[in-house]
Design brief:
about 35% helix; alpha+beta; six-stranded mixed beta sheet
Amino acid sequence: MGGDIVIPSRVPLLRRRVPGKLAWLAVTPFAAWAVTRLAGLERGSFPAQIMTATPYAAVGSLLPLLLAALSRRKAVSAVAVVTTAALGLSVLPRLFAEHAAPGGRPFTVLSTNLLFGKADLATVVGLVRRYRPDVLSTQELTPSAVTELDAAGLKELMPHRVLEDEWSASGSGLFSSHPLTRLDGLFQVIGHNMPAATLTLPGGARVEVVDVHPLPPLGRQVTAWAEGLRALPSGPSSGPFRILAGDFNASLDHVEMRRLLARGYRDAGDATGRGLIPTWPANKRVPALITIDHVLADLRMPVRDYRVFDVPGTDHRAVLTTLSLPEGN
């Protein structure tokens, strides 16, 4: 029974060497994603759809970064570091709020996609009654939804409206507690109905609001989706304030969305450090995953607050934003 008992030594994880080929195999897809995201190279329906998952890709890139480090290969490690940094810098700014100078008149916008009018409309009216938004922007608004909203009390809360309701996903409508004037010819509508209106506040200040709802980038619709975003009006530097609110079917990781912002807007979620709160798909077995519902305000309007709410019966979460209208404009 004599002899020594030999216990195999355990190699610590950080001392193990990962094959270089495995490290490259893990890093390459994320590197390609980073290049596509930074250069705005997404083309076609599938790339446009998966680009909304960039925040998850940024987190996922940490695994190939670890594998690259364990491979002890300088080239793949360098590519992995640059990849993770590029994806991280694309996403992390949405977690940090901009400094907004106080002052000015608060202006609140509520936007919600009603899913062919199937949303719990009493919940929508309840949000209006609780937060008293100046304007409500609705997408997938049907004629029956208008009737039900009014029956739930919206007629008294927001008697002014510019509606383009339909028995389809194309229906849209703006409701307000202030006088609204239909604004035709502001831009070429490509996609679902996108009514625009000028809202006149007590004291004479005017705000232009566009109810945004381009087609989703599915199949051949991807071309119309891109054209619909490009056709939206730019943010003005003088005259009436301008707000774009609705279901953009696009996230801040789409190049078309970033180009729109570069034309004179700020995203309310991004400006408040809440730009990664997902809005779709809501009320499913899986939680909401991506952020495609937005409120964009022209650069003259600081963002005070941004919130997201669940509304039963629809696959989108409602977005509530409070902006500041500077005095003297």
